[in-house]
């Protein structure tokens, strides 16, 4: 198991296993393992944003969000894929990218069993089961669950193909 210098850190860590969240938001009831996370969360209700970008003036409720945002100005991409050396500005994007190498698709549709790399892709897919497939190509009749997918598809009908 893990070791900790302070007993309080061990107590806090144990909460990740027990699910105990003793610090509750008085506004919405959401619980937190750490008091500092509750304080950060409460800023979502008050609108208080303590961390401002000196480049563009955009403000954030957490310093870590500001640090991540600043990479959009610097172009810094500190997270590198060990398989292909592609770089990312957020670790979460690297984790998602690595699934293209491993083939892991952890988000599975309970209706049909189809799996996806991203949860957002699963949520888009699930609309097929609840709403049907609403976007139809007027040129060939192919259907899409997302308008942007239809728009992308339509370029296949309009792009010049000089080597046919």
UniProtKB/TrEMBL annotation:
Compartment(s) of residence: Nucleus
The entry's keywords: DNA-binding, Metal-binding, Nucleus, Repeat, Zinc, Zinc-finger
SMART domains: ZnF_C2H2 (SM00355)
Sequence ranges assigned to domain C2H2-type in this UniProt record: 1-22, 23-50, 51-78, 79-106, 107-134, 135-162
InterPro entries: Znf_C2H2_sf (IPR036236), Znf_C2H2_type (IPR013087)
Chief site of localization: nucleus
PROSITE patterns: ZINC_FINGER_C2H2_1, ZINC_FINGER_C2H2_2
Cellular component terms (Gene Ontology): nucleus
Domain of life: Eukaryota
GO MF annotations in UniProt: DNA-binding transcription factor activity, RNA polymerase II-specific; RNA polymerase II cis-regulatory region sequence-specific DNA binding; zinc ion binding
UniProt-listed PANTHER family: C2H2-TYPE DOMAIN-CONTAINING PROTEIN, ZINC FINGER AND SCAN DOMAIN-CONTAINING
Full protein name: C2H2-type domain-containing protein
């Amino acid at each position: 198991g893990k070791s900790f210098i302070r007993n309080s850190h061990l107590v806090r860590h144990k909460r990740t296993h027990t699910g105990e969240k003793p610090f509750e938001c008085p506004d919405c009831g959401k619980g937190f393992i750490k008091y500092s996370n509750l304080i950060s969360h409460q800023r979502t209700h008050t609108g208080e944003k303590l961390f401002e970008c000196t480049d563009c003036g955009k403000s954030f409720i957490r310093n870590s969000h500001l640090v991540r945002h600043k990479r959009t100005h610097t172009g810094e991409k500190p997270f590198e894929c060990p398989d292909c050396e592609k770089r990312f500005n957020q670790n979460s994007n690297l984790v998602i990218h690595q699934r293209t190498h491993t083939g892991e698709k952890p988000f599975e549709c309970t209706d049909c069993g189809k799996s996806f790399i991203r949860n957002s892709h699963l949520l888009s897919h699930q609309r097929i089961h609840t709403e049907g497939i609403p976007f139809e190509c007027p040129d060939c009749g192919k259907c899409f669950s997302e308008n942007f997918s239809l728009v992308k598809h339509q370029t296949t009908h309009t792009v010049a193909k000089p080597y046919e």
